[in-house]
Amino acid sequence: MKIEHPYLMFLGDAPDELAAKTAIGIKQWRPDWCKGQLRLENCNADLGLPDMTIAQAREAGVKTLVLGVANRGGIIGPVWMETLLEAIDAGMDIANGLHTKLSTIPELAEAAAAKGVSLFDVRHFDGKLPVGNGEKRSGKRVLAVGTDCSVGKMYTALAIEAEMKKRGIKSTFRATGQTGIFIAGEGISVDAVISDFISGAVETIAPANDADHWDVVEGQGSLFHASYAGVSMGLLHGSQADAIVVCHEPTRSHMRGLPGYSLPDLKTTMEVNLMHARLTNPDCVVAGFAINTKALDDAAATKLMADISAEFGLPCVDPVRNGVAPIVDKLQEI
Amino acid sequence: MKIEHPYLMFLGDAPDELAAKTAIGIKQWRPDWCKGQLRLENCNADLGLPDMTIAQAREAGVKTLVLGVANRGGIIGPVWMETLLEAIDAGMDIANGLHTKLSTIPELAEAAAAKGVSLFDVRHFDGKLPVGNGEKRSGKRVLAVGTDCSVGKMYTALAIEAEMKKRGIKSTFRATGQTGIFIAGEGISVDAVISDFISGAVETIAPANDADHWDVVEGQGSLFHASYAGVSMGLLHGSQADAIVVCHEPTRSHMRGLPGYSLPDLKTTMEVNLMHARLTNPDCVVAGFAINTKALDDAAATKLMADISAEFGLPCVDPVRNGVAPIVDKLQEI
Questions:
Q1: I want to staple B219 with a disulfide (CB 3.0 to 4.6 A). Which of A32, A287, B144, B239 is the partner?
Q2: Are A317 and A181 found together in one domain?
């Protein structure tokens, strides 16, 4: 799966900005890839990009229409279909972040086949994968892990990749979830693969590389999440991480989606992740902590990060407030 | 998925006994369900059951033709097709343990639909599953875990169920792999579900039950297996085990399929499984050890089991040599 850019961002009839969260993430991390946006009637989201028709986008060189928006009820209605068919007719690929698979809508599948364009359903994975083999491979890899889901693992990984590129370090962000895949232009939604192949999927998307190249692997879930820990475990083994970065949101009262389940502490999270990571890479270390301090004021955030850094003797940053330079410093020592 | 018995065991043209391993396991644990066997030319396996044609099996009340045999090259050839179509025509369901899905062979799918019979592809799972919710449910559950794959987890679980039934304890074996599914008549191949739903699949197959009922859950893989640990992790969380039994094969030089990966020791296996099990059931304990001592002589086996029992102060048995009574004694204390 290789999604070609530039992109035209389809916002449909998004009821609010939140529905366009994926699209916002793509524009934030790959602004040069996003040529314009296409909004239908009643769309309440705005990426601040030029509004374009399909024809205008084609003219501007757009290769892919990106559905980076949650829709009402998970159904692709007639009002959307018209635009999607127009895009196919104009020769564009469509990359879709919805649960609904475009490839199972006969009208779209037939039109795409006739026109020779691709429909990418990035939340799904139907390809063939190998079982993980655990064999040591060249190149370096860092994985973002977390105390919980949605604590900033993707943001942290992208910030590390950006900082590495700024320093001239060879690096590639490796996407394991839908927003990440749009941002990378490729990847596999690891939570969508058959469970026998979780670590094999990660070995596939973060393969052997130059000895001085870093793969920055997007994490998923948490080893302490009762719903998704299996995914996190396979990711840890498959990424064969030389280093992990522990991500956390300090104000959360319970694990996401699991009232009654409290979050693990940072020490436990670090130790248990390290233990399992060392199965496939005995030299794995912790490169630091990435804390999402959005809910704290400056003083509280600064104090919390200083306390964590002192407790563990490791860098602790909020990637949004501070960037990730101290973590990349640490990675450069490896 | 509910596979009706009695079964006719299809051995096809199995080149040797090993190819019929699944069928042998079914006959061992559910002899009353196995009415006969059907062998084609050049079949070198023999379950010691009466040889039957499809017509004879139908006459004997057989409901399902069971493909519990590995075939040559994973392809269902014309010589098999004839028998399968005959079974469908006689109104039998077919339950298939091969990787190849019967339901994707148009000739079989059409014949089955026309006749109103079911094709069960037990290595696959296409149904809808919930994400695991981790909510405490009633009833008791014991899970077989292991240092590695193929160390006797299914056998141990079935032996525990049998011993419990002998004692009049309410219990149900819960199958998570293909042979187990034939033996239980239902279940889900957990390694075949989408990875987001591993723990949800286990919550589904081992649901809330009477407070004094035991679900004996078949384990898969190992938390220390670089290919499959994600599956084992989800199983542990989803089963919400009150007790685990640690299974081991003491002469294995490396993890199955992974040369260069040594087996974890029993203490580590026990502790790490307990730690993760306690996420969804804080009261989980170890009920004992089940050692596959097939490769040892009597004296060596007896000494090894005595040593392990003394080291941990817990029952240690070889289910084949000794049965699992001491483990069930321990479970009755819970």
A1: B144
A2: yes
Q: Do A293 and A159 sit in the same domain of this protein?
A: yes
| Residue B181 domain boundaries | 140-332
- The b/e string for B274-302 (b: 16+ C-beta within 10 A; e otherwise) is bebbebbbeebbbbbbbbbbeebeeeebe
Q: What is the domain count for chain A? A: 2
- Whether residue A227 lies within 8 A of chain B, CB to CB, comes out as yes
What distance separates the 2 farthest-apart alpha carbons in chain B? 61
Count chain A–chain B contacts defined by CB atoms under 8 A.
122
Q: Which residues pair with B48 in a beta bridge?
A: none
Please write the tens of the pLDDT for every residue from A266-281: 999 999 999 999 999 9
pLDDT over 90 (residue B1): no
> Is A207 in the same domain as A308?
yes
A263 touches B: beta carbon within 8 Å: no
Contact check, Cβ <8 Å, B261/A193: no
Which residues from chain A sit within 8 angstroms of residue B233, using beta carbons?
Answer: 223, 229-230, 233
In Å, how far is B32's CA from the nearest CA of chain A? 33
CATH of the domain at A162: 3.40.50.300
| B202 and B260 housed in the same domain | yes
Confidence of residue A136 (pLDDT cuts 50, 70, 90): very high
Q: Pick left, alpha or beta for residue B172 (phi over 0 → left; psi -120 to 50 → alpha; otherwise beta).
A: beta
Q: Which band of pLDDT confidence, cut at 50, 70 and 90, is reported for residue B189?
A: very high
